[in-house]
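yo

u said u wanted the structure for the complex thing, so here. seqs first:
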Amino acid sequence: KQEVTQIPAALSVPEGENLVLNCSFTDSAIYNLQWFRQDPGKGLTSLLLIQSSQREQTSGRLNASLDKSSGRSTLYIAASQPGDSATYLCAVYSGGGADGLTFGKGTHLIIQP
Amino acid sequence: NAGVTQTPKFQVLKTGQSMTLQCAQDMNHEYMSWYRQDPGMGLRLIHYSVGAGITDQGEVPNGYNVSRSTTEDFPLRLLSAAPSQTSVYFCASSFMKGNEQFFGPGTRLTVL
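structre next:
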């Protein structure tokens, strides 16, 4: 059974810092990996989708990398801003069986002004 | 486009009551799914559908029923609510299974 782990569970950094959020998964046979942002009391907003054949994807100040063989992904946030404060969720799509996303429990990020 | 919409936003039920959570999307997506989000558990897949007339069970399907009569709508039914079903429910859709998924705003359900 696929399991997804996100470290750290919580992170607080001053504004302007570059930071890295980590995601690991137990079964490397994935089709893709998706990073989401969730604000308190809100739904999930898709940030980046990386296909299994890709090594990285970029969107603005966000860069996500994927090392499928080692079961790891990172989300890099450059020049962090208070508006980046949210919970960041990593999810993998493995296909087969229960045909949906397997989520990590998230990293709760606070950017201090 | 409204994207993925869910109603109601909040609901309180008594044990044993039934209700339907509504989900609709206007993006002509074939794949739709339901998740529940509980503290410390992350999001877990309840049911999913790869197209109109086709539904299947996810990781935690017990106590829930779904149907998919149109491409746009994917309602989730609680037949006899239990306190263990207190949760936040999210509906999601994608063009096809395995594509980028888009989530609705969620329904916060409390069962007393």
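DSSP finds no helices and eleven strands in chain B. Chain B has a mean pLDDT of 96.
cya
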